[in-house]
């Protein structure tokens, strides 16, 4: 898949290298051309100098064929603006924005944009929100039989109950992350836009569960 990153600081450059090593194509945008020196000499992706929320710059980055967008510059407002442009103007579903002010997290989550605060940021957290499937598990039992993973959920599941996910996949919804806080789902808990869904499943079923949740559910 093709991923566009705004911001080539320590976060953006590390994310770009990690994604490229996993076989994805990457374009990275930054206002300063000097920032691209943080990339490794063998980085083969595109580097674009400009503002990550500028339409022409995004088109140059290949946003029209991208599957994911990460806004990881050093400005909260720029990150959210760019993330909204990527989602609303170009239809990118897998969007994530880095924030410095945790007090703004609830506002951003209500816009349907997953955010990662700097205090608890890791490359793995960003990748879980960018890649629609095959994400790194959050936990495995010692035998390697059961995994807990944050699974990308198609927007068609919004408005459905967590129970519907379990009935459709055979997996268990362990908890949701909603507006930055954990939530244990009850029988009538409904998936809302911006929710992060954490699922417990058999290791052997992981690919099938991720594929099913990554597509629009069948009508009930």
Q: How does the major sheet shape up?
A: 6 strands, parallel
Structural class designation = alpha/beta
Strand order of the largest sheet: 3-2-1-4-5-6
Oligomer category: single chain
Please report which band the strand proportion falls in: under 5%, 5-15%, 15-25%, 25-35%, 35-45% or over 45%.
Answer: 15-25%
Number of strands: 11
Gap between N and C termini: 31 Å
- Spans of at least 5 consecutive residues whose pLDDT stays below 50 are none
> What Rg is obtained from the alpha carbons, in whole angstroms?
17 Å
Mean pLDDT: 86
Tell me the overall shape.
globular
Order of helices and strands: EHEEHEHEHEHEEHEEEH
Number of helical stretches of at least 4 residues: 7
Helix content percent band: 25-40%
Describe what this molecule looks like in 3D:
- A 6-stranded parallel β-sheet has the order 3-2-1-4-5-6, sandwiched between helices. A 5-stranded antiparallel β-sheet has the order 7-8-11-9-10, with helices on one face.
- The chain has helices at residues 10-21, 55-60, 76-89, 105-110, 123-130, 162-169, 206-213; strands at residues 2-6, 25-30, 46-49, 68-71, 94-99, 115-117, 139-140, 146-151, 172-178, 181-183, 196-202.
- 28% of the residues lie in helices and 24% in strands.
- With 220 residues, the chain is of the alpha/beta class.
- It has 7 helices and 11 strands.
- The longest helix has 14 residues, at 76-89.
- A hairpin with a 5-residue loop joins β7 and β8 (146-151).
- The model has no long low-confidence stretch (mean pLDDT 86).
